[in-house]
Amino acid sequence: MPFRHRDFRLLLLGQTTSQLGAQVSGVAIPLLAVVTLDASPLQLGLVTAAGTIAFALIGLPAGAWIDRCRRRPVLVAGDLVRAALLATIPLSAFLGTLTIAQLVVVSLLAGVARVFFDVGYQSYLPSVIGRSDLLAGNSAMETVRACGQVAGPGIGGWSVTLLGAANVVLVQAVTFAVSAASLLAIKTREPAPLPRQARIGAEIREGLAFVARTGLLRATALCSAAGNFSFAIASAVTFVFMARMLCLSPTMIGMVLTAGAVAAMAGAAITPRLARRVGSARIIWLSLAVTGPVTVLVPLARPGWAVGLLVLGTAAGELGQIIYAVANVSLRQRLCPERMLGRVNATMRVLLMGLFPLGALLGGALGEAVGLRPTLWVAAAIIVLSPLPVYWALRRIRDVEDVPHWGRNSTA
């Protein structure tokens, strides 16, 4: 079990604090834009898009570069940079100079740091716990992340009401600093990266080619990209929908998000057991096929008791996505060759997140053009269809052990 590893516990501690802070500010920043700065759906879409566009711009070279170096220093730097950037938001609010433009710039630069952290993190975990414990390790990490999701939105909504949204963002800056400290305390030495002979452009092309010729990677990329695209569309209008159409207070919005996070925590915790019962490969597509149709309840929500439809649809979506994410990432970490892991993770992140800015902008534009509720219907329809590529690729495979190893000529 991964909990035997002291260094894994340290990694878990850092992620616990940073994820709690991320969930708190995940409520605070949209509410800051909507309530304090009176942002339109399009402006909120710009803030959301700015946080993810870096994946499309620098994701591929970041992955190739990470394969050339040890990953822990990259993770520490990513945490510290994000802490410093987020600290400027409450400072500007105190000085009375905070604007939507600053939120966009901070989101953009923090997104650059996130690219290096996310790619490095997924490539670093096998060095800490070994590949045999990856499913349990990813499950534990996602359970902790979901615990932050449970507490974070409720704390965020309550804190916004009590302290103001700008001040709450400072919480995440502190948690990123704590995460950096926990990473520095890890003693496991990473193996030295293999010397590279090729230019970085050639290595990027090698990573792209590996994903392109590996059928299962192509399928999961399409599935995950569709899910992220749907979430991006919804993200541009969801907070406006809850605050203005459902008349929910910041505290109530936090409670709605907490309900979804409870479902995510449960999903992360039960993923290893479900994988053993259903199949560690089969659960990847089945989790989305079962929960996806329930998300169509979200646009049916109305003020009053029908807000429960929003809660149920959100919870179902979180449950399915977290089970899918744990099983899918564990499969990739286990079967991908070590020397390619950074580039493959980067390629996948670019494919997944590259559509996010477009989705956020599209969601903002749709929200203003056709309304908030029709935009949520579009997002729900995409989620329902998203598992089809993975189902087609894995329909005859039950467990990860049955998937051919992704060697040079793999077409799995």
UniProtKB/TrEMBL annotation:
SUPFAM superfamilies: MFS general substrate transporter. The chain crosses the membrane at residues 42-63, 84-117, 162-186, 222-246, 252-271, 283-301, 307-329, 350-370, 376-394. It is found in: Cell membrane. Residues 216-412 form the Major facilitator superfamily (MFS) profile domain. GO terms for molecular function: transmembrane transporter activity. The keyword Transmembrane helix applies. It holds the Pfam family MFS_3. Keywords: Cell membrane, Membrane, Transmembrane, Transmembrane helix, Transport. One of its GO terms (cellular component) is plasma membrane. CDD domains: MFS_MefA_like. It comes from the Bacteria. It is a multi-pass membrane protein. The keyword Chaperone does not apply. This is Putative MFS family arabinose efflux permease. It comes from Nonomuraea polychroma.
